[in-house]
Amino acid sequence: MKLSQQKKNSLVSLLASKREEIESGKLRVLLIDECHLLWGDLTGYVWGKTDQEIAVEVINERDKQTYYGAVDYSFWQVSSESLQCW
Fold first, then answer.
1. Residue 52 pLDDT exceeds 60
2. CA of 12: how far to CAs of 5, 40, 53, 68, in Å?
3. C-alpha to C-alpha distance for 15 and 26, rounded to whole angstroms
């Protein structure tokens, strides 16, 4: 079995064992990702609703910038935070 399949099975088992706590709101599950932008990466595509403008502030456009995002699995609320790389 591939390592990625083993990790998936492990995660599925863990979430299943915590299902009652998750559904009752005692335990939150966050889907977390990160994005690294480098100078020149600013032209591209953004996912979102077509009738709403999406603006991403880039503080240090000549350097690197990392954005972290999380989705709350129970409520599908999205939050994000930028981190300046040195």
1. yes
2. 10, 38, 36, 23
3. 13
